[in-house]
Amino acid sequence: MNPKKTIRPEHKKQHAKNTIRSIKRHWQLYLIVALPLVYLIVFKYMPIIGSQIAFRDYNFKGGIWHSPFVGLKYFKMFFQSPQFWRLMGNTLGLSVYGIVLGVFPPIILAIALNYVRVPRRIFSMPSGLFPFSNNSVTDVISDGSGESPDRESGRTGHSFYGRA
Fold first, then answer.
1. Which of 22, 23, 148, 164 fits 159 for a cystine, CB–CB 3.0-4.6 Å?
2. pTM
3. Which is nearest to 78 in space by CA: 90, 87, 66, 65?
4. Are strands 158-159 and 162-163 parallel, antiparallel or unpaired?
5. Looking at per-residue confidence, does 86 or 105 come out higher?
6. pLDDT in tens, 112-161
7. Alpha-carbon distance 32 to 36, whole Å?
8. Between helices 84-115 and 73-80, what is the axis angle to 10°?
9. What are the CA-CA distances from residue 2 to residues 5, 15, 55, 73 (Å)?
10. Are the C-beta atoms of residues 163 and 155 closer than 8 Å to each other?
11. Residue 62's pLDDT is what?
12. Residue 163: beta bridge partners?
């Protein structure tokens, strides 16, 4: 059997210095990693804290942390409610409805378009340009013109009240 190796204190200090030196040398990489981590923590993990409201008798004055904990009281009330089965049926029905309408029509449309005996360019050009049409519509609605802005002034040929 191998006896446990002990690390001498001077080696620990050297390892810590090497780690700090490495962090200082590659600080840009750590920054690149830190930004997605901050995003993940703020927008994915912090909202989980708010989910404990379901287990508390929440009052505004006490906030999340100082409201009394009631456990599964509200879940029991919901499951024993006469509306539970109706709500559960509606939820499951809408989920199935969304899956059926979100999966099958696009597949059927793709197969149908594949069997159409028309030159491919008639379908390929509009379908290739379709994603950009929404952007054009948004431009016309937002500034009322659909024209590109003037490079010097940044204004378009039309204004809200008429020709600029």
1. 164
2. 0.44
3. 87
4. antiparallel
5. 86
6. 877 877 666 665 656 656 665 555 555 555 555 555 555 555 555 444 44
7. 7
8. 80
9. 8, 24, 51, 56
10. no
11. 84
12. 158
